[in-house]
Every structure is written in C-alpha cells, then in structure tokens.
Amino acid sequence: MPDSIERPAVVLLGVSGHPRAIAAIRSLGRAGIRVIGVEREDVLQRAFSRYLHNRVRANPTAEALLAFLERQSGRPIVMALDDDYLITASKHVDSLARWGVPTMPRWEHLTRVIDHAMLYRIAREIGIDTPAFFKPDDEAALRALVPTLDLGRREYLLKTVPGTVPAEARNGRYTKIASGDAGRFEAECREIAARLGEFPLIAEIVPGDATHCIGVCMLVDHDHTPVIAYAMKRLQLFTYSRGGFVHPYELGANVYCESVHDNEAIDAATRLVRATGYVGVITVEFRRDSRTGRLMLLKADPRFVRATSLSTALGLDLPTALYRLFVERVDAGAESESASTAPACPAYREGVAWLWATMYLENFWDNRDNRAVRRELLTLVRNAYRVKSLAHVSLRDPLPGVMHVQWRAGVWLADRARGLVRRLRNRSPSR
Predict the structure, then answer these.
(1) N or C terminus: which one in the chain shows less Cβ crowding within 10 Å?
(2) What is the tens place of the pLDDT at every residue in 301-332?
(3) Is the pLDDT of residue 430 over 70?
C-alpha cells in the first residue's frame, strides 16, 4: 500500500449517526485514510467524528452523486452505507467509475441479493434451505393461494424489492407483517400491487427467537471468494422475542451480539455469494428453525451492518479491508477477475460482544417492570467483560458517543411528551 499521503480518499455515501456509519468512519480514519462523508438533506442524525475530514450534502440521486464526484480529485474509493445510495450507485457504476472507484456490485449482481424471490431461488438451486415463499402472478393466483396458507398457525411477511415501492407505505419499509385474517391478507396484497404494479413476495416467517439467528459477515474478493468471514449471534433481548414475530427485520435482538463459530452458516454463505457473483461487503443472515434445527436463509445485507465495529474488535476491520481490496486492485492494474492473491479467511475469537448501549437501555426502561427483562440485564452485567465494542462510545473518538446520547435523549423526551399529551387528551372530563 502507498504511503498515507498518497492514499486515495474514501467517499462514504449516506453518512449519519447510525452505528454502521460511525464504524466505517473510525475504521478508515484510524488507518490514516481521508474520509469524506455524503449525507442526504433530510438526515435525521448527523455524523460527528474526529476522523471525518469533510461532510457534504447530496441526495441519493444519480445527478447529485455524479455532480459531486466530478468535483473530486485523485479518484476516491466510493462506498455506500445505506440502501438508497447503494442502489443508485449500483445502477450507475460505469458513470461513477469515470471519477472514482466504486466498491459496490453492478445492478445485475446486486439485484440477485436484494430481491428475495431471486435470492431464495438461487439458494435452493445450490441446496440452501429458505422459508416457504410465493409470488402470485395475478389476482386469480392470489385468490387460489390464500386458502392454502396456514394463517392461523403461521406468520407471513409481504416483501418488495428495495428501490421500488415500500411494502408498508406508512413507514417506508420494504417488509410488512401480513395480517392473519384471510380477507385482510388479500387486501394488503392488492394494496401493494396497486402501487407496485405486481404482487409482493409472500414469505413464511421462520419460527425461532434471537438465539436461533446467525449472521455471516463477509468481504468477498473479485473471484467471488470470501477473504474475511466471521459469524455472529444476536443475543436475546426479551422484548424482541417474547411471543410471535415483532420486528420485520429481526435477525435477533439487534442491539447486542457476539462472535461465534458456525461452519455450516459460513459454508452456506460462501456458496451463496459465489452463486450470485457477488463482490464486496455483505452479511448473509440465517435462522435455525426452532422446529427442526435446520439452517434457513433469511436475507442478505449488501453493505455494512450496525455491528460492523465488532469486526474491528476481532482484528478484521471490514471497512479498511474493503478499501485495501479495491486500492490493491487498482494498483495492480485491475488484473483478471479470476486471479486472486488474497489469503485464506483469518481466524477470529469467539464470544467477543458488541452492544448498542443506548438502545438496549431504552428497551430495558420501556419494559422495566418485566422480570425476564431484569434478568437479562443482570446477565449482561455479569458478561460485561466480553463487550469489546460499543456502537458509539470510544475513548479515542468520544464525539460520536456524546452527540448520539444528546440526540437519543431528545428523541426519548419528545416521545414521552407526545405520550403525555395523548393521555391528557384521552382523559374523560371531570364531572
């Protein structure tokens, strides 16, 4: 690698105060790499860090991003931190490559992992189990399908592809928990189809709680071989899994996790990225079916996830490793994609934990009268020595933690104030 003064800068698309953005900024900054953050105009929580060299505003549109990159010098390495920027950049990789070095895959490869119908079909072709899923072609197919679903005992998700229209228009999410009533179920599918132009993917929820879930975080080389791969288990926070499916993105209690060794999950994820032709950073998420113990594919996140700073605690440092993968490829003259000199995946320690403390404590406070929640907090306290990475807190870079606590406190107080106003409005007038 060249001396730090000669290193290309990194342009991070979609910076915010989210843990994945802070993890990427710190990883790259500590390596002596200049970090330029691009944030959207309506960003809710801004990114603050001693390692953030500059911050500009450009919404996730091709026009805005290309205009911004045209003004950059030295062909920066371009990474995307959220889905909107990722999709826009992926669809315009060739244009981005005129001024920088994109690290995201082309759209034809990205769509194979963000379109769950396509991802599940690819997985089944190579022998990886997936949830039961259905994609009605028309109204008649939907009417014929619904009576065959076990709505009384099973739960289902309605999914649309990120970058199209959200499954849940109210909150903008691309995954929605379907109603257990057949009539409402059909109505929800029709409402999505009216906006999307086609019916959503219907996927059965794999039963199991947070302790049944495994995420495999990987950096995949240009020959579609992982050069970094480690597994993490999301540790259970009672409020996420005390009965029924609660959160449509639940990999587990996604504020507290630890590294584990799960060769079956890593092998399945490795075969999946090869089959999709993926290159770059990705987390493949599985859940073990609580009925059978079988490993079931849930989804894939083709970007950094919130627990990315766990990779730093493990000595793997995904953001900097991604940077090196593309810088070394440029320095080598972009040799044949089939050629790879990357070493085998490095070993890592098991039982190293990551914690998003503010979110954990907020969930605890909201459920402080629940005995099971109090027991979980005691368990966390006993195992605190295993927490080697925190979402925002760092003695070397305290600003993100300070600003995040300030922001979360404001959100928490505003929520309580709104709740108080609602209660006052709903009180019966005194007689």
Answers:
(1) C
(2) 999 999 999 999 999 999 999 999 999 765 55
(3) no
Domains in the chain with CATH codes: 4-104 (3.40.50.720), 132-204 (3.30.1490), 210-392 (3.30.470.20)
Q: Report which of 222, 237, 241, 235 is spatially closest to residue 307, judged by C-alpha positions.
A: 235
Q: What is the pLDDT of residues 189-206, one digit of tens each?
A: 999 999 999 999 999 998
- Using pLDDT thresholds of 50, 70 and 90, give the confidence band for residue 244: very low
Query: Residue range 402-430: average pLDDT?
Result: 83
Distance CA 160, CA 145 (A): 18
pLDDT at 380: 85
